[in-house]
Protein backbone atom coordinates (compact mmCIF):
# COMPACT_ATOMS: atom_id res chain seq x y z
CA UNK A 1 0.00 0.00 0.00
CA UNK A 2 2.75 2.48 0.92
CA UNK A 3 4.58 1.78 -2.34
CA UNK A 4 1.39 2.43 -4.30
CA UNK A 5 0.75 5.72 -2.51
CA UNK A 6 4.19 7.00 -3.48
CA UNK A 7 3.09 6.92 -7.13
CA UNK A 8 0.15 9.25 -6.53
CA UNK A 9 0.34 13.07 -6.46
CA UNK A 10 2.15 14.69 -3.57
CA UNK A 11 0.15 14.88 -0.30
CA UNK A 12 -2.12 12.01 -1.38
CA UNK A 13 -3.29 10.24 1.78
CA UNK A 14 -5.79 7.72 3.08
CA UNK A 15 -8.10 9.39 5.57
CA UNK A 16 -9.25 7.76 8.86
CA UNK A 17 -12.35 6.37 7.14
CA UNK A 18 -10.22 4.58 4.55
CA UNK A 19 -10.88 6.92 1.61
CA UNK A 20 -8.21 8.09 -0.81
CA UNK A 21 -7.75 11.85 -0.65
CA UNK A 22 -5.98 14.04 -3.20
CA UNK A 23 -4.60 17.13 -1.47
CA UNK A 24 -7.43 16.89 1.04
CA UNK A 25 -10.19 16.16 -1.48
CA UNK A 26 -11.78 12.74 -1.28
CA UNK A 27 -11.60 10.92 -4.58
CA UNK A 28 -15.12 9.56 -4.23
CA UNK A 29 -16.48 13.08 -3.67
CA UNK A 30 -14.81 14.23 -6.90
CA UNK A 31 -16.23 11.24 -8.75
CA UNK A 32 -19.71 11.91 -7.38
CA UNK A 33 -19.53 15.55 -8.48
CA UNK A 34 -18.01 15.11 -11.95
CA UNK A 35 -18.71 11.47 -12.87
CA UNK A 36 -16.33 8.81 -14.16
CA UNK A 37 -14.07 8.20 -15.92
CA UNK A 38 -12.50 11.32 -14.45
CA UNK A 39 -8.98 12.68 -14.68
CA UNK A 40 -7.77 14.68 -11.69
CA UNK A 41 -4.58 16.77 -11.84
CA UNK A 42 -2.89 18.11 -8.72
CA UNK A 43 -1.26 21.41 -9.73
CA UNK A 44 0.94 21.47 -6.64
CA UNK A 45 2.67 18.32 -7.87
CA UNK A 46 3.32 19.93 -11.28
CA UNK A 47 4.74 23.07 -9.67
CA UNK A 48 6.94 20.97 -7.42
CA UNK A 49 8.36 19.08 -10.40
CA UNK A 50 9.03 22.34 -12.26
CA UNK A 51 10.90 23.65 -9.20
CA UNK A 52 12.96 20.44 -9.07
CA UNK A 53 14.06 20.88 -12.69
CA UNK A 54 14.94 24.51 -12.05
CA UNK A 55 17.05 23.68 -9.00
CA UNK A 56 18.98 21.12 -11.01
CA UNK A 57 19.40 23.39 -14.04
CA UNK A 58 20.85 26.09 -11.77
CA UNK A 59 24.10 24.10 -11.66
CA UNK A 60 24.70 24.88 -15.35
CA UNK A 61 27.15 27.78 -15.70
CA UNK A 62 25.28 29.20 -18.71
CA UNK A 63 21.71 30.18 -19.49
CA UNK A 64 18.97 27.55 -19.31
CA UNK A 65 15.40 27.24 -20.48
CA UNK A 66 12.67 24.79 -19.51
CA UNK A 67 9.93 23.88 -21.99
CA UNK A 68 7.00 21.52 -21.56
CA UNK A 69 6.50 18.83 -24.22
CA UNK A 70 2.83 19.55 -24.92
CA UNK A 71 2.17 16.18 -26.56
CA UNK A 72 2.11 14.63 -23.08
CA UNK A 73 -1.15 16.49 -22.39
CA UNK A 74 -2.35 19.92 -23.42
CA UNK A 75 -5.42 22.02 -22.79
CA UNK A 76 -5.78 25.79 -22.45
CA UNK A 77 -5.79 25.60 -18.65
CA UNK A 78 -2.50 23.68 -18.59
CA UNK A 79 -0.94 26.06 -21.12
CA UNK A 80 -1.99 28.91 -18.83
CA UNK A 81 -0.33 27.21 -15.85
CA UNK A 82 2.93 26.66 -17.73
CA UNK A 83 2.97 30.29 -18.87
CA UNK A 84 2.40 31.47 -15.30
CA UNK A 85 5.32 29.31 -14.17
CA UNK A 86 7.60 30.70 -16.90
CA UNK A 87 7.80 27.36 -18.71
CA UNK A 88 7.91 27.42 -22.52
CA UNK A 89 6.09 24.97 -24.75
CA UNK A 90 7.35 22.35 -27.19
CA UNK A 91 4.54 22.00 -29.71
CA UNK A 92 4.15 19.57 -32.61
CA UNK A 93 1.35 20.94 -34.78
CA UNK A 94 -0.73 23.96 -35.67
CA UNK A 95 -3.41 22.40 -33.47
CA UNK A 96 -1.20 22.42 -30.39
CA UNK A 97 -0.23 26.00 -31.22
CA UNK A 98 -3.92 26.94 -31.33
CA UNK A 99 -4.64 25.32 -27.95
CA UNK A 100 -1.57 26.90 -26.36
CA UNK A 101 -2.52 30.37 -27.61
CA UNK A 102 -6.09 29.86 -26.38
CA UNK A 103 -4.50 29.39 -22.96
CA UNK A 104 -2.58 32.66 -23.29
CA UNK A 105 0.87 31.19 -23.90
CA UNK A 106 3.30 33.43 -25.79
CA UNK A 107 4.31 31.95 -29.17
CA UNK A 108 7.77 33.46 -28.72
CA UNK A 109 8.26 30.99 -25.85
CA UNK A 110 7.39 27.98 -28.05
CA UNK A 111 9.29 25.84 -30.50
CA UNK A 112 7.71 23.70 -33.19
CA UNK A 113 8.57 20.04 -33.79
CA UNK A 114 7.38 17.46 -36.32
CA UNK A 115 8.90 15.14 -38.91
CA UNK A 116 6.43 16.15 -41.64
CA UNK A 117 5.29 19.68 -40.90
CA UNK A 118 2.65 20.82 -43.36
CA UNK A 119 2.36 24.23 -44.98
CA UNK A 120 -0.42 24.91 -42.50
CA UNK A 121 1.85 24.05 -39.55
CA UNK A 122 4.71 26.20 -40.81
CA UNK A 123 2.53 29.12 -41.86
CA UNK A 124 0.75 29.11 -38.51
CA UNK A 125 4.09 29.13 -36.69
CA UNK A 126 5.48 31.95 -38.84
CA UNK A 127 2.37 34.09 -38.56
CA UNK A 128 2.15 33.60 -34.79
CA UNK A 129 5.83 34.35 -34.25
CA UNK A 130 6.84 31.00 -32.77
CA UNK A 131 10.26 31.42 -31.20
CA UNK A 132 11.98 28.54 -32.98
CA UNK A 133 11.20 25.92 -35.61
CA UNK A 134 13.05 22.63 -35.21
CA UNK A 135 13.84 21.52 -38.77
CA UNK A 136 13.57 17.77 -39.30
CA UNK A 137 14.62 17.22 -42.93
CA UNK A 138 15.93 18.91 -46.08
CA UNK A 139 12.52 19.10 -47.77
CA UNK A 140 11.12 20.98 -44.80
CA UNK A 141 14.11 23.33 -44.80
CA UNK A 142 13.43 24.26 -48.42
CA UNK A 143 9.72 24.81 -47.76
CA UNK A 144 10.35 26.85 -44.63
CA UNK A 145 12.87 29.06 -46.44
CA UNK A 146 10.33 29.71 -49.19
CA UNK A 147 7.48 30.51 -46.79
CA UNK A 148 9.63 32.73 -44.56
CA UNK A 149 10.85 34.69 -47.60
CA UNK A 150 7.30 35.09 -48.92
CA UNK A 151 6.16 36.44 -45.56
CA UNK A 152 9.36 38.50 -45.15
CA UNK A 153 9.93 36.96 -41.74
CA UNK A 154 13.21 35.90 -40.22
CA UNK A 155 12.89 32.68 -38.28
CA UNK A 156 15.11 31.07 -35.70
CA UNK A 157 15.79 27.37 -36.44
CA UNK A 158 17.45 24.37 -34.88
CA UNK A 159 18.37 21.21 -36.75
CA UNK A 160 17.09 18.01 -35.19
CA UNK A 161 19.89 15.46 -35.34
CA UNK A 162 19.60 11.70 -34.83
CA UNK A 163 23.00 10.86 -33.33
CA UNK A 164 22.49 7.07 -33.54
CA UNK A 165 22.93 6.51 -29.82
CA UNK A 166 21.04 3.62 -28.24
CA UNK A 167 18.83 4.40 -25.25
CA UNK A 168 16.88 1.87 -23.23
CA UNK A 169 13.17 2.59 -22.98
CA UNK A 170 10.38 0.19 -22.08
CA UNK A 171 9.30 -0.24 -25.73
CA UNK A 172 10.94 0.15 -29.12
CA UNK A 173 8.17 2.53 -30.25
CA UNK A 174 9.48 5.14 -27.80
CA UNK A 175 13.04 5.17 -29.18
CA UNK A 176 13.62 8.17 -31.48
CA UNK A 177 17.36 8.80 -31.74
CA UNK A 178 18.57 5.64 -33.48
CA UNK A 179 19.77 5.42 -37.08
CA UNK A 180 16.46 3.78 -38.06
CA UNK A 181 14.23 6.68 -37.04
CA UNK A 182 11.71 8.74 -38.95
CA UNK A 183 12.91 11.80 -37.01
CA UNK A 184 15.74 14.20 -37.76
CA UNK A 185 18.94 14.32 -39.78
CA UNK A 186 21.65 11.67 -39.47
CA UNK A 187 24.90 13.31 -38.40
CA UNK A 188 26.52 13.38 -41.85
CA UNK A 189 23.40 14.77 -43.49
CA UNK A 190 23.01 17.36 -40.73
CA UNK A 191 26.56 18.55 -41.38
CA UNK A 192 25.97 18.73 -45.14
CA UNK A 193 22.65 20.55 -44.83
CA UNK A 194 23.94 23.00 -42.24
CA UNK A 195 27.02 23.61 -44.35
CA UNK A 196 24.93 24.26 -47.45
CA UNK A 197 22.70 26.67 -45.53
CA UNK A 198 25.63 28.57 -44.04
CA UNK A 199 27.45 28.68 -47.38
CA UNK A 200 24.39 30.12 -49.11
CA UNK A 201 24.04 32.76 -46.44
CA UNK A 202 27.72 33.67 -46.71
CA UNK A 203 27.40 34.07 -50.47
CA UNK A 204 29.63 31.16 -51.53
CA UNK A 205 27.33 29.43 -53.97
CA UNK A 206 24.28 31.29 -52.70
CA UNK A 207 23.62 33.63 -55.60
CA UNK A 208 20.13 34.02 -56.91
CA UNK A 209 16.64 33.80 -55.48
CA UNK A 210 17.28 30.59 -53.51
CA UNK A 211 20.19 32.19 -51.68
CA UNK A 212 18.02 35.16 -50.76
CA UNK A 213 15.33 32.80 -49.45
CA UNK A 214 17.78 31.13 -47.08
CA UNK A 215 18.74 34.51 -45.66
CA UNK A 216 15.44 34.36 -43.76
CA UNK A 217 16.65 31.38 -41.68
CA UNK A 218 18.86 31.87 -38.63
CA UNK A 219 20.51 28.61 -37.59
CA UNK A 220 20.98 29.11 -33.88
CA UNK A 221 21.14 25.62 -32.45
CA UNK A 222 21.10 21.84 -32.57
CA UNK A 223 18.58 19.45 -31.10
CA UNK A 224 18.40 15.76 -30.24
CA UNK A 225 15.83 13.52 -28.59
CA UNK A 226 16.77 9.91 -27.94
CA UNK A 227 13.48 8.56 -26.68
CA UNK A 228 10.72 8.68 -24.12
CA UNK A 229 10.63 7.16 -20.64
CA UNK A 230 14.31 6.30 -20.22
CA UNK A 231 16.29 6.29 -16.97
CA UNK A 232 19.99 6.55 -17.83
CA UNK A 233 21.82 9.84 -18.43
CA UNK A 234 24.86 8.37 -20.20
CA UNK A 235 23.30 7.91 -23.66
CA UNK A 236 22.05 11.51 -23.62
CA UNK A 237 25.49 12.76 -22.64
CA UNK A 238 26.97 10.72 -25.49
CA UNK A 239 24.44 12.21 -27.91
CA UNK A 240 25.41 15.69 -26.73
CA UNK A 241 29.08 14.86 -27.36
CA UNK A 242 28.27 14.00 -30.97
CA UNK A 243 26.35 17.24 -31.47
CA UNK A 244 29.19 19.24 -29.98
CA UNK A 245 31.63 17.56 -32.36
CA UNK A 246 29.32 18.63 -35.18
CA UNK A 247 29.30 22.19 -33.82
CA UNK A 248 33.12 22.21 -33.82
CA UNK A 249 33.26 21.09 -37.47
CA UNK A 250 30.74 23.76 -38.48
CA UNK A 251 32.73 26.39 -36.62
CA UNK A 252 35.97 25.36 -38.30
CA UNK A 253 34.47 25.31 -41.81
CA UNK A 254 32.00 28.21 -41.65
CA UNK A 255 32.74 30.18 -38.48
CA UNK A 256 29.34 29.19 -37.05
CA UNK A 257 28.88 29.52 -33.29
CA UNK A 258 26.16 27.42 -31.70
CA UNK A 259 23.99 29.60 -29.49
CA UNK A 260 21.49 27.01 -28.30
CA UNK A 261 21.61 23.29 -27.54
CA UNK A 262 18.65 21.08 -26.73
CA UNK A 263 19.22 17.48 -25.58
CA UNK A 264 15.47 16.89 -25.62
CA UNK A 265 13.49 15.37 -22.80
CA UNK A 266 12.13 11.90 -22.14
CA UNK A 267 13.18 11.28 -18.54
CA UNK A 268 11.00 8.55 -17.10
CA UNK A 269 8.80 8.21 -14.04
CA UNK A 270 7.87 5.15 -11.99
CA UNK A 271 4.46 3.74 -12.99
CA UNK A 272 4.45 0.66 -10.80
CA UNK A 273 5.76 -0.22 -7.32
CA UNK A 274 8.28 -2.56 -8.96
CA UNK A 275 9.81 0.29 -11.02
CA UNK A 276 13.10 1.79 -9.80
CA UNK A 277 13.13 5.37 -8.51
CA UNK A 278 13.82 7.92 -11.25
CA UNK A 279 14.76 11.17 -9.46
CA UNK A 280 15.05 14.20 -11.72
CA UNK A 281 17.87 16.09 -10.03
CA UNK A 282 20.69 13.53 -10.50
CA UNK A 283 19.77 13.16 -14.17
CA UNK A 284 19.77 16.91 -14.85
CA UNK A 285 22.85 17.76 -12.79
CA UNK A 286 24.87 14.98 -14.45
CA UNK A 287 23.70 16.07 -17.89
CA UNK A 288 24.51 19.75 -17.40
CA UNK A 289 27.89 18.95 -15.85
CA UNK A 290 28.79 16.69 -18.77
CA UNK A 291 27.63 19.33 -21.27
CA UNK A 292 29.65 22.12 -19.64
CA UNK A 293 32.77 19.94 -19.43
CA UNK A 294 32.41 18.84 -23.05
CA UNK A 295 32.11 22.44 -24.21
CA UNK A 296 35.24 23.46 -22.28
CA UNK A 297 37.19 20.57 -23.77
CA UNK A 298 36.28 21.76 -27.26
CA UNK A 299 36.77 25.45 -26.49
CA UNK A 300 33.12 26.09 -27.35
CA UNK A 301 31.20 28.95 -25.72
CA UNK A 302 28.49 27.60 -23.46
CA UNK A 303 25.22 27.48 -25.43
CA UNK A 304 21.88 28.21 -23.84
CA UNK A 305 20.66 24.80 -22.68
CA UNK A 306 17.00 23.89 -23.21
CA UNK A 307 15.31 20.83 -21.72
CA UNK A 308 11.95 19.51 -22.93
CA UNK A 309 10.40 17.36 -20.18
CA UNK A 310 6.81 16.34 -20.73
CA UNK A 311 5.97 13.11 -18.96
CA UNK A 312 8.12 13.84 -15.93
CA UNK A 313 6.41 17.21 -15.33
CA UNK A 314 2.82 15.99 -15.36
CA UNK A 315 2.56 12.19 -15.16
CA UNK A 316 2.56 11.83 -11.38
CA UNK A 317 0.19 14.77 -11.02
CA UNK A 318 -2.64 12.89 -12.75
CA UNK A 319 -5.01 10.27 -11.34
CA UNK A 320 -7.65 8.44 -13.38
CA UNK A 321 -10.84 7.48 -11.54
CA UNK A 322 -13.15 4.73 -12.80
CA UNK A 323 -16.32 3.07 -11.54
CA UNK A 324 -16.21 -0.70 -11.09
CA UNK A 325 -18.84 -2.73 -12.96
CA UNK A 326 -18.99 -6.49 -13.31
CA UNK A 327 -16.67 -9.33 -12.37
CA UNK A 328 -15.76 -12.41 -14.38
CA UNK A 329 -14.13 -15.28 -12.51
CA UNK A 330 -12.39 -17.93 -14.61
CA UNK A 331 -11.40 -20.61 -12.08
CA UNK A 332 -7.71 -21.39 -12.17
CA UNK A 333 -7.08 -18.73 -14.82
CA UNK A 334 -7.95 -15.15 -13.91
CA UNK A 335 -10.52 -12.82 -12.40
CA UNK A 336 -11.50 -9.81 -14.47
CA UNK A 337 -12.84 -6.66 -12.83
CA UNK A 338 -14.45 -4.39 -15.41
CA UNK A 339 -14.45 -0.59 -15.27
CA UNK A 340 -16.08 2.19 -17.30
CA UNK A 341 -12.91 3.31 -19.09
CA UNK A 342 -9.75 1.88 -20.55
CA UNK A 343 -8.54 1.74 -24.13
CA UNK A 344 -10.23 4.96 -25.26
CA UNK A 345 -8.79 7.16 -22.50
CA UNK A 346 -5.54 5.24 -21.98
CA UNK A 347 -4.21 3.30 -24.99
CA UNK A 348 -0.71 2.92 -23.49
CA UNK A 349 -1.17 -0.67 -22.22
CA UNK A 350 -2.37 -1.75 -25.67
CA UNK A 351 0.30 0.23 -27.57
CA UNK A 352 3.32 -0.20 -25.33
CA UNK A 353 2.37 -2.91 -22.81
CA UNK A 354 2.62 -0.19 -20.17
CA UNK A 355 2.31 -1.46 -16.61
CA UNK A 356 0.08 0.28 -14.04
CA UNK A 357 -1.20 -0.27 -10.52
CA UNK A 358 -4.39 0.83 -8.76
CA UNK A 359 -6.25 1.27 -5.48
CA UNK A 360 -9.90 1.07 -4.57
CA UNK A 361 -10.29 4.72 -3.66
CA UNK A 362 -13.38 4.24 -1.48
CA UNK A 363 -11.85 1.25 0.36
CA UNK A 364 -8.18 2.16 0.32
CA UNK A 365 -7.67 1.19 3.94
CA UNK A 366 -8.78 -2.41 3.47
CA UNK A 367 -6.54 -5.43 3.02
CA UNK A 368 -5.78 -6.38 -0.59
CA UNK A 369 -6.91 -9.98 -0.68
CA UNK A 370 -7.12 -10.91 -4.37
CA UNK A 371 -5.19 -10.43 -7.58
CA UNK A 372 -7.30 -9.38 -10.54
CA UNK A 373 -7.03 -8.00 -14.07
CA UNK A 374 -8.65 -4.62 -14.76
CA UNK A 375 -10.59 -4.69 -18.02
CA UNK A 376 -12.23 -1.90 -19.96
CA UNK A 377 -15.63 -2.16 -21.71
CA UNK A 378 -14.48 -1.82 -25.32
CA UNK A 379 -14.62 -4.35 -28.15
CA UNK A 380 -10.96 -5.36 -28.09
CA UNK A 381 -9.30 -8.22 -26.22
CA UNK A 382 -6.39 -5.81 -25.74
CA UNK A 383 -8.58 -3.52 -23.65
CA UNK A 384 -7.02 -4.65 -20.38
CA UNK A 385 -5.74 -1.68 -18.41
CA UNK A 386 -3.87 -3.74 -15.78
CA UNK A 387 -2.93 -7.38 -16.20
CA UNK A 388 -2.54 -8.08 -12.48
CA UNK A 389 -3.11 -5.93 -9.40
CA UNK A 390 -3.80 -6.72 -5.76
CA UNK A 391 -7.05 -5.21 -4.44
CA UNK A 392 -9.77 -5.83 -1.87
CA UNK A 393 -12.58 -7.85 -3.42
CA UNK A 394 -14.07 -5.23 -5.75
CA UNK A 395 -17.83 -4.82 -6.04
CA UNK A 396 -19.99 -2.91 -8.52
CA UNK A 397 -19.95 0.79 -7.70
CA UNK A 398 -16.49 0.80 -6.12
CA UNK A 399 -14.11 3.52 -7.30
CA UNK A 400 -10.81 2.50 -8.87
CA UNK A 401 -7.94 5.03 -8.78
CA UNK A 402 -5.02 4.62 -11.20
CA UNK A 403 -1.97 6.79 -10.50
CA UNK A 404 0.61 8.27 -12.89
CA UNK A 405 -2.19 9.10 -15.31
CA UNK A 406 -1.10 12.62 -16.28
CA UNK A 407 0.85 11.96 -19.49
CA UNK A 408 0.21 10.31 -22.86
CA UNK A 409 -3.28 9.14 -21.95
CA UNK A 410 -5.84 11.84 -22.67
CA UNK A 411 -3.60 13.22 -25.42
CA UNK A 412 -3.98 9.89 -27.25
CA UNK A 413 -7.62 9.28 -26.37
CA UNK A 414 -10.28 8.35 -28.91
CA UNK A 415 -13.99 7.88 -29.46
CA UNK A 416 -13.72 4.18 -30.30
CA UNK A 417 -17.08 2.46 -29.73
CA UNK A 418 -18.46 6.05 -29.61
CA UNK A 419 -17.00 6.48 -26.14
CA UNK A 420 -17.23 9.92 -24.54
CA UNK A 421 -13.87 11.36 -23.57
CA UNK A 422 -13.59 12.04 -19.83
CA UNK A 423 -13.86 15.24 -17.88
CA UNK A 424 -10.69 16.78 -16.42
CA UNK A 425 -10.47 18.67 -13.14
CA UNK A 426 -7.56 20.60 -11.66
CA UNK A 427 -7.03 20.58 -7.91
CA UNK A 428 -5.14 23.63 -6.69
CA UNK A 429 -5.04 23.66 -2.92
CA UNK A 430 -8.64 23.94 -1.76
CA UNK A 431 -9.93 24.83 -5.23
CA UNK A 432 -11.33 22.18 -7.56
CA UNK A 433 -11.91 23.42 -11.10
CA UNK A 434 -13.44 21.68 -14.09
CA UNK A 435 -11.14 22.49 -17.04
CA UNK A 436 -12.50 20.07 -19.64
CA UNK A 437 -16.11 18.91 -19.57
CA UNK A 438 -17.07 15.37 -20.43
CA UNK A 439 -18.03 14.90 -24.06
CA UNK A 440 -21.72 14.52 -24.89
CA UNK A 441 -23.50 12.40 -27.47
CA UNK A 442 -24.03 15.56 -29.48
CA UNK A 443 -20.25 16.03 -29.63
CA UNK A 444 -20.00 12.66 -31.37
CA UNK A 445 -21.97 13.93 -34.37
CA UNK A 446 -20.96 17.61 -34.31
CA UNK A 447 -18.64 17.16 -37.29
CA UNK A 448 -21.10 15.25 -39.44
CA UNK A 449 -22.66 16.90 -42.48
CA UNK A 450 -26.36 16.15 -42.68
CA UNK A 451 -27.64 15.66 -46.20
CA UNK A 452 -31.25 16.83 -46.18
CA UNK A 453 -31.77 16.62 -49.94
Structural features, described:
- The chain is α/β, with parallel strands linked by helices.
- The protein has two domains: 2-35 and 317-444, Lyase, Ornithine Decarboxylase, Chain A, domain 1 (Beta Barrel), CATH 2.40.37.10; 43-313, Alanine racemase (TIM Barrel).
- The protein has helices spanning 2-5, 27-34, 43-57, 76-84, 94-102, 119-128, 138-150, 187-202, 209-214, 234-254, 280-297, 311-314, 348-352, 441-444; strands at residues 13-14, 20-22, 25-26, 38-42, 64-69, 88-91, 110-112, 132-135, 155-162, 185-186, 217-223, 260-262, 304-307, 318-330, 334-339, 359-360, 370-375, 384-391, 399-402, 423-428, 431-436.
- The strands form three sheets. Strands 4, 14, 15, 16, 17, 18, 19, 20 and 21 form a nine-stranded mixed β-sheet that branches.
- The radius of gyration is 24 Å and the shape is globular.
